[in-house]
Amino acid sequence: MTVLDKAKQWARAIKRDVMALWLAARDPRVPWYAKLAAGMVAAYALSPIDLIPDFIPVLGYLDDLIIVPLGILLAVKLIPADLMAEFRAEAIRRSRPTSRGGLAFIVGLWVLMAAALIWLFWPDRSA
């Protein structure tokens, strides 16, 4: 198996687990703290925009390569193994949704950061 094949297999597993976490966040059998973690990871991963846009060199892909997989690992550990296996099987059969909540969260963070930067660097007119 080549490195490219391994990378493709890893990417498919990530996509499957994100979908499984999306399902877990909505299931009443999952503990509330696991639902919270699963929902946050799924919302971020399924959001059509990233916290750090991909066009920013190096940093743009760090969230995709580090933040999402670490979030998945944490959330998966919080969900009972038998339920996670069920969610993974269901995730394979479903199509990928998008997260409007994740989109709103990321856009909200961008607006807050822009407002903070404007406030921080706006020239003091009272002097």
From TrEMBL:
The chain crosses the membrane at residues 32-52, 58-80, 101-122. It comes from the Bacteria. The keyword Protein transport does not apply. It is a multi-pass membrane protein. Its main location: membrane. GO terms for cellular component: endomembrane system. The keyword Glycoprotein does not apply. Keywords: Membrane, Transmembrane, Transmembrane helix. It is found in: Endomembrane system. Residues 34-70 form the DUF1232 domain. This is DUF1232 domain-containing protein. It comes from Mesorhizobium australicum (strain HAMBI 3006 / LMG 24608 / WSM2073). The lineage of its organism: Bacteria, Pseudomonadati, Pseudomonadota, Alphaproteobacteria, Hyphomicrobiales.
